[in-house]
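Problem 12. The chain below contains 414 residues. Write out its predicted structure in token notation.
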Amino acid sequence: MKKSYLLLVMIGVFIIAGNFKTTAQTTSERLDLPGDNLNLYAVLKIFQESETLEIFEKKLNEEYSKINNLDLNRDGKIDYIKVIDNVDGDVHNIVLQDIMSVSENQDLAVIVVQKKNDNQVEIQVIGDEDLYGKNYIIEPNFETEEMGVKSTPNPGFTVGTGHNITVENTSTFVISSWPIIRFVYRPNYELWHSPYYWDAYPVYWHAWTPLFWHEYYGWHYHWNYYYYAHYRNWHYCRYDRWHNFYFDRRRSQSEYFNKMKVRGDFKDVYSRPELMRKGSNEFIKKYPQSPSAKDRLPKIDYPIKETPIKITPRHDAKAVDDEGLKKAPDVHNQRQEDIKIAPPVMPKERSKPIEVNPLRPIPNESNQIRPIEKQHTLPDRQPLQKPIEKSINKESDKKPAEMQRISKPKMRKI
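Solution.
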């Protein structure tokens, strides 16, 4: 019983170790950081294909290559990336730097080229922590010996769609034969420092509008068969003097960029997932014979639209202001003065019927007539009668009989 239990434990440990090893050699497709718009796998690919650092800088900033998609200063235009080589003995720290403004630059990544005593060359692309997080490192697939154990890349794995990728191993001797590696280790090599700066760019370059991330990813997704076959994600830096020579002394950071990143100004680049198909179609149109041209795109998780919450405030007589509007309580950090709700509508009282004298005209706005002081109304359902005319008979004008009997007393003459 104990043997079977130990056997199950050992199998579980091996499975976990295998999964960890595979995870260390692959990387997530999206970091949710500004570095998502500069694919370091693509950067290492064109670095390998370039002959000089000047040519590498030119390829890095070409529009049709779709590698540089950075707009760190948020001006609606692609930023220019310049290349600077800092040499520490036989180690080249080739810095990729974004020209942010007249006074600020931001380091994007460093290509560390390290030559060993036996002419073997190790190379790593280390993403800057501000754009990629800590320990985001890309390097070629080659055999390494760590703690006396040889480590080889995973011979094959799947990326998203079921397309099988065959890893092509290389070696430090093969890397030393790259054209650009031979260039930087020539005896007459002149240290390359890009001469361009803010508002002074090469004649062949022009700024263009950056792409949304999903369109950018739709293009590079079809390059994964090549990226993951030749390069891998690694978990530590092989250069011992990384902090002493570069990170603590020569690293450039933009305060303006970091403030925008903290505010979340770069989150809107992920707002158009439907554009992934557009980037994929552009790749297929340009490379119809590519082995990944028929690969299906991964499923897209569309963002859920948040429905606004209706807030019904408590009716309180004390909350009524001078204008008769109620103020709702402060909810979800909303300003209290911005939320005003009209008072409840009271039922209208029935208006009394207007008494109309048929013998007098009704006043209105057109004929402004003074209001009648007294209005005599006729009883309901009583027919109209003609006014009684005064009698002309003289007998009717005589005084009553009682009044005629009373006569004035006769005055006595003295």
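Discussion. Residues 13-27, 304-337 have pLDDT under 50 and may be disordered. Students who got a different answer should revisit the alignment rule from Section 12.3.
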